[in-house]
């Protein structure tokens, strides 16, 4: 598969707006929570915005739509099933479907849980997961149920190991701290923490993270492993129950 070059624009404290090419001098922007830093970064690179892709209605992901819309008049794409509709969308996505953003075919995956209509976008091997899946973590369950969120995580987990995970926030170190609180002796997590600390001294994010690594190290993707159920004192419990308790513990962490 052809490698697609994408790059992040850091916004606010820890949000990431991701840009990928749709033509020789145009990009699609995923989750621009703030339009000004994105416009500045793209202008500096002589790029224009052809498409804006929103994963969910939270303003720290969608708040930059007006600024980018006025500047470049891009096609605005977002979820259809949100409790709070996102104004001004040209294309709303009600089911799993595909659409074309310039030269890129974008595959839409409905992943409810963080919000009711949350979608993820798969473009080549790039997975823009918004606030559903983070490196070594997952989003809070605000509007959906834990069962729904677990099903959404399983859906993302079913993608190939070579898929590159790109998230709406850089939360990796906090997530590793929580994962190690469950599983303090996990050597692979300890090694990954060291790698992340070094990388974050040079760059605003450690992402992308290969999904193959997430399947091995992200506790929220491992709720159906007996070892993980045991770490939570839930030996033999259904994965939904393990997920629910893990998420509750993370909310209090
Ligand atoms: Zn959110």
- Could you state the order of secondary-structure elements as H and E? EEEHEHHEEEEEEEEHEHHEHHH
CATH architecture of the largest domain: 4-Layer Sandwich
CATH class of the largest domain: Alpha Beta
Q: Report mean pLDDT, rounded to a whole number.
A: 97
Query: What is the CA-based Rg, rounded?
Result: 18 Å
Describe the structure.
The protein has 9 helices and 14 strands. It is of the alpha/beta class and 253 residues long. The chain has 2 domains: 7-166, Ribonuclease Z/Hydroxyacylglutathione hydrolase-like (Metallo-beta-lactamase, Chain A); 172-252, no CATH class. Helix 1 links the parallel strand 3 and strand 4 (48-53). The chain starts with 6 loop residues before the first strand and ends with a helix. Zinc ion is lined by residues 56, 58, 61, 114, 131.
Tell me the layout of helices and strands:
Blueprint lengths: L6 E5 L3 E9 L2 E5 L4 H10 L3 E6 L5 H4 L2 H8 L2 E5 L11 E3 L3 E5 L2 E7 L8 E5 L2 E3 L4 E2 L2 E2 L7 H12 L6 E3 L5 H11 L4 H14 L8 E2 H7 L8 H6 L7 H14 L1
Parallel strand pairs: 3-4, 4-5, 5-6, 10-13
Antiparallel strand pairs: 1-2, 2-3, 7-8, 8-9, 9-10, 11-12, 13-14
Helix pairs in contact: 1-3, 5-6
The structure holds zinc ion.
Zinc ion (ZN) binds next to loops.
Quick tags:
253 residues, 2 domains, six-stranded mixed sheet, 14 strands, globular, binds zinc ion
Summarize the structure.
The protein has 253 residues and is α/β, with parallel strands linked by helices. It has helices at residues 35-44, 59-62, 65-72, 146-157, 172-182, 187-200, 211-217, 226-231, 239-252; strands at 7-11, 15-23, 26-30, 48-53, 75-79, 91-93, 97-101, 104-110, 119-123, 126-128, 133-134, 137-138, 164-166, 209-210. It is built from 9 helices and 14 strands.
């Amino acid at each position: 598969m052809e490698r697609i070059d994408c790059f992040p624009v850091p916004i606010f404290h820890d949000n990431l707006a991701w840009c990928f090419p749709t033509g020789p001098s145009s990009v699609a922007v995923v989750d621009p929570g703030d339009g000004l830093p994105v416009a500045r970064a793209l202008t500096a690179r002589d790029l224009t915005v052809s498409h804006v892709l929103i994963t969910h209605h939270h303003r720290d992901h969608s708040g930059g739509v007006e600024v980018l819309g006025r500047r470049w008049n891009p096609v605005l794409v977002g979820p259809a099933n949100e409790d709070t509709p996102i104004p001004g969308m040209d294309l709303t996505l009600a089911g799993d479907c595909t659409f074309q953003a310039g030269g890129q075919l974008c595959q839409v995956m409905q992943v409810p849980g963080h919000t009711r209509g949350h979608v993820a976008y798969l473009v080549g091997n790039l997975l823009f997961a918004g606030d559903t899946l983070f490196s070594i973590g997952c989003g809070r369950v605000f509007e959906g149920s834990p069962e729904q969120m677990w099903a959404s995580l399983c859906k993302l987990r079913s993608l190939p190991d070579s898929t590159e995970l790109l998230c709406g926030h850089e939360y990796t170190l906090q997530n590793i701290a929580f994962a190690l609180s469950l599983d303090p002796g996990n050597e692979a997590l300890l090694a990954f923490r060291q790698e992340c600390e070094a990388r974050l001294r040079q760059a605003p994010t450690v992402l992308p993270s290969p999904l193959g690594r997430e399947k091995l190290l992200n506790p929220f993707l491992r709720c159906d492993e007996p070892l993980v159920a045991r770490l939570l004192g839930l030996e033999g419990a259904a994965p939904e129950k393990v997920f629910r308790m893990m998420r509750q513990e993370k909310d209090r962490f």
